[in-house]
Amino acid sequence: MNKFGIIAMTAVVAALVSFGTFKFATSQFVPDDGNNNFGVTAASAKGRITAEAPEFINAAALVTQSIVHIKVMVSRSAAGSGRYDPYYDSPRQPQSVMGSGSGVIFSADGYIITNNHVVNSATAIQVILTDKRIFEAKLIGADPNTDLAVIKIDAKDLKAITVGNSDQVQVGEWVLAAGYPFSLNTTVTAGIVSAKGRSIGIIGQKEEGQDRQLGNATTMGSAVEAFIQTDAAINPGNSGGALVNTSGQLIGINAAIASQSGSYEGYGFAIPVNLADKIVKDLIKYGEVRRGLLGVSFPSPSTEDQFLIQQGIKPGSVLGAYITSVQPGSAAAQGGLKAGDIIQGIDDATISSSVELSERIARHSPGDAVKLKYKRGQQNATTNVTLQAQEAAPKSSRMTDADAITSQLGASFAPLSTAFKQRYGLPSGLGISKVEADGLLAQIGLQSGSIILSVNGYRVNSVGDIVNIFKASTNGIMRFECLTPEGQRVVFNLSFGA
Description:
This protein has 11 helices and 30 strands. By secondary structure, it is an alpha+beta fold. The termini are far apart.
């Protein structure tokens, strides 16, 4: 066979192979089945591979019927108040400002869920439905500890959202976020669940009526953060809106973003609906949240590893919530729990962190009986406890002087010079010069060299400031915002009750 014959034969063989490959490939392609499903499947059921796009259209249609635009009027006066406000750092005259957020219709008769920071201190609340009807709303109740609030409009036959189950949400699952970012009409964005049980130290950091941005770490005491993290685009104005699964079921209430610019940069956070459902029903029924208390303390997530290392414990060996102290007379004390125990389960749920412990306990009411699984040394044990009600600490037993508070915190303090504050851009601050091993600050892993920036949202520059803020507290719980020597902001609660 001559040279040209060989070339011709090669071309024919190549064409046949190409045609056969095309026929094989197209035989595996699955066309539209009438339900907008496309994919590629193997020839047999064994080892079948299917790639399908999630169904967003129906979920978006469902959620947008149950989202509302919330506008609030807030009267502010920062002049002379000492209130910590990261957005404004100069005295200003009283003024009225307009805020904007989102809400989720919880019931057909007009109850609407939103964030506490959306409606906090509002002098007027206006709700705009998707059909453009406008209603004046009244505040039914709010819970700063979870950043949830319930408002009510006088309307009937509203489209209430379908409540899902946030415990069943999985990392990697597709979700939709819906709300009114930048006061735009109803907007829906898509993404996945990036993480669960996130504690970011955001609750209580910003002034009311503002969308919040990422802080760091939280958590002891009454504040509860166990956010669902998502990369669905969430922007200012989305606060109080819905995070839903692809079935259109509510799995979270959008509450915060992680951003250096103030707008979406890939991280959003939503309050899990299983927690929100309990809080909302309490607010509707009682006008307040009635939360069962266990009575234990644990390190904040940002300092937990450091704390465990100081105790001679390898952080990776602790799976659960490491208890640093047990409040005398509490449910935990009555159940036999001790400092050093590691709580690893509540009823049928496994607990892998203090964040999960806080969120699970927060779903319960006073008087609820729960079964705790814990580890003490190398021994596993269980105990049944009855959660108690949170009560205001008696005034007569409260710490009301500088020496007493310094002693209980277990630390020595030093004022910051004006030059130091100016150099590091700090509007306030009280230095921690020494931390005692048995004090409250040591229990949460705070080191000497840290700086207290604010307490209960108010700036502090001296121990006297802390005393005055404590005297104004109604329940003996103090929320500290601090700056560590490494420059990390941490937020935690401490109880100074009897």
